[in-house]
Design goal:
single chain; 197 residues; 4 helices; 11 strands
Length: 197
């Protein structure tokens, strides 16, 4: 069974968070395979203050395979989401990175229904760009939306992007939802984290 031209077999890795196999397609294997998290798990945990609404808040997750992508996304309940103060964010990660940090390619433009909603420019020489997810809900409309994404980077298959429906959470809400552990376990975790410093 052929996955795509030039790739006769799936290129799978096991996610250490959800324990599912994830097809990396043309992306390079992560350096730290023992701690690999699949992009969907990383997108869900990227920003706890703008938490993905479960179970269907991860509306689209896609590994980049070409510099221009055009697709349609149907959002019939967008008006209700806005009443509930939910947002739609575009998030992107480097597949080979070992963290949940946002990472844009060198250049990126996103248009929704012919209007630009995201424009990420290449950083000026000698400067570091601060990559953060983008809230695109203002550029979307209830019903069918046509999305066009144009990207430029040295290795685009190393990126995955997602559109996620989120709800804002306060620090208090997050602390209430955070599982507690015993003091001995907490101390052991801190010692392990600080062992290399």
């Amino acid at each position: 069974e052929i996955g795509c031209l030039g790739r006769p077999l799936p290129n799978t890795m096991k996610c250490q968070f959800c324990f599912n196999d994830y097809d990396l397609q043309h992306a390079e294997l992560p350096k730290d395979a023992d701690n690999f998290w699949c992009p969907p798990c990383r997108f869900r945990r990227m920003d706890p203050f703008n938490a993905v609404v479960e179970p269907y808040g991860l509306m689209l997750c896609h590994i980049v395979v070409r510099p221009t992508i055009t697709f349609s996304i149907d959002l019939p309940e967008l008006k209700q989401w806005r009443k509930e103060e939910n947002d739609v964010w575009m998030r992107m990660v480097k597949i080979g990175a070992g963290n949940c940090s946002q990472a844009w390619p060198k250049k990126l433009t996103v248009e929704a229904n012919g209007n630009e909603v995201v424009n990420v420019k290449e950083p000026e020489e000698g400067h570091v760009r601060r990559d953060v997810p983008k809230n695109i809900v203002a550029g979307l409309r209830p019903g069918l939306n046509t999305i066009s994404i144009t990207m430029e980077d040295d290795y685009l298959p190393g990126y995955a992007f997602a559109f996620v429906r989120t709800a804002q959470k306060t620090a208090l809400q997050i602390s209430v939802e955070t599982p507690r552990c015993e003091p001995e376990d907490s101390l052991a975790r801190v010692m392990e984290l600080l062992a290399d410093t």
